[in-house]
Amino acid sequence: MELTRKIRELIPYAPAEGKYALRLDANESFIPLEGPVLERAMAAVAAVEFNRYPDPCCTALCQAFGEYYRISPRLVTAGNGSDELISILMNCFFAKGDTVLTITPDFSMYRFYGQLAELKVAELPRGEKPLDAAAVVAAAREQSAAGLIFSNPCNPTSSGVDRESIRQILKALPDTLVVLDEAYMDFWDRSMLAEAETYENLIILRTCSKAMGLAGIRLGFAIACSRLTDALRAAKSPYNVNAMTQVVGETVLRDREYLENCVQKIKEAREDLYRGLCRLAERRPGTILEITPPLTNFVWLRTWDNNRVFEGLRDRSIMIRRLGDHLRVTAGSREENRILLEALEELL
Ligand SMILES: *Cc1c(COP(=O)(O)O)cnc(C)c1O
Description:
The chain has helices at 5-8, 35-46, 59-69, 81-92, 109-116, 133-142, 163-172, 226-235, 243-253, 256-283, 306-315, 334-347; strands at 22-23, 76-79, 99-104, 120-125, 147-151, 177-181, 202-207, 220-224, 288-291, 298-303, 318-319, 321-323, 326-330.
């Protein structure tokens, strides 16, 4: 039996393997779930009816998500991580051979799922500037793109696009499905959630894996007008979000104080890391060549020798991400940032 070409040519997603003392490579939260909120989550798990299928509509969970973000649960669909939602969108909202426009660099899973869905994945280089709405519209038109997907703020560049540019793109491309991945928007304040219902061609993605510190339970959401939401709910597999994830997600989403505190702490951690890197750049001129002020929970930088930095850190059991000619470092706790900065200081 021959494997299909799309499988043979697939480049598997390869997260770092092995044990490292410090993991600053996957943009996870450094805050473990603990204390009263963990106890409530565990009690909710204990009350799950394990012999029954979970709620296919995730009713209580979507209600909690809607209350937290002050939007109608009617616009919300839950997924087994936003990864699953990206996969469903690529497979069900486009036809084989359609073009989906991505911006590079951006989240690598767009290409991964697009290729599996036998789509043409076109790329528009971001350039050094913030994303330019007119250039995106022109590229989408030129390619006759059926879809456009990008993250805002962006993984990996940690830069962001204002709402007016997003609105321009949405209005200029009424026949293109625009998937706006707001995985890191808890750390910035330019969300389009409040306008999700206004556009017939917009799907917003959110995740519990970053700001909420729930990467382990696999939970993401798609927010869109009711027509697109109905289509998405029809296309997803009925029991895509398991019962334990539903109750843990609901418990955490209902604790606004806990979540706002997590976001605050992570923002402080990223400022701490960013400032530490800037100080290092000043003390060791010519080593750190570029650092972008971060809008996310990670910092994007370029050094005079990325391979040496990456390998030097790895030898010290510190994992970061190397992407093209840049490095991406997730903000850790104050102590973790200090360990990283000390190791960097030695290497530079
Ligand atoms: C981390 C991340 C996600 C989250 O994926 P999950 O499957 O929900 O964990 C989605 N989009 C971007 C851009 C990310 O960086």
